[in-house]
């Protein structure tokens, strides 16, 4: 079953979820004016046409790296410098850098800058082989994510700091705003899962997820330019599942966190398997 055929089924078979949930009242008012946000820089809601600009800037930077204009170890211009160079907003630059970082092309060093990484062979290349024309290939990727992220959620519940938990909730808030605005949530969804990986305080979890690349979020295969074509009720269902994961982590309940992540990722697998059976 091709992705194009899948879209038709997807738009008509979405679940009817519980309403969008914000954070638990227990976690309201978590803003920390002195918290320095880490390199999760995809959290601002993009403008409706921002996706095209993100992809354009990202491709320019990828081309510069591929041609050797930007070599391993080179430092990219500052955010303001890239903004002026490409004549786009800071949000576009942040999302483009986040995309490069997710694909293992650059490294963000806090307080220093963004640096080009040496090409990585083997594991990362293998994870990029998701076939967007085969729903079964997407399921394979989701199974790998489940093996990684269920345990990551449990460790995050046991080890995360208040600042890391706050970042997870910021990702939730960003997705809520983007859903309300009709903007794509793909990048902020990925930022949510990477924030959980970071909250394990074991860098290998982030490395494994970043090795999967942009296709870590299957909806990226169904996105039309900067518009997420997923039905609102489907996005609401996903967001409800995200909220349960975040609350369990913030409560320090490692068992509930694992269960919530298992429900989330196994549910995605079941939805895609149902499409295969109907095809």
Automatic annotation (TrEMBL):
Residue stretches spanning the membrane: none
Segments for region (Disordered): 65-87
Region forming the signal peptide: none
Top-level taxon of origin: Bacteria
Gene3D superfamilies: GntR ligand-binding domain-like, Winged helix-like DNA-binding domain superfamily/Winged helix DNA-binding domain
GO MF, one annotated term: DNA-binding transcription factor activity
Residues covered by the HTH gntR-type domain: 51-119
Transcription regulation as UniProt keyword: yes
Keyword annotations of the record: DNA-binding, Transcription, Transcription regulation
Start-end of Basic and acidic residues biased regions: 68-77
UniProt cross-references to PROSITE patterns, sorted A to Z: HTH_GNTR (PS50949)
Protein's name in the database: DNA-binding transcriptional regulator, FadR family
Species assigned in the record: Xaviernesmea oryzae
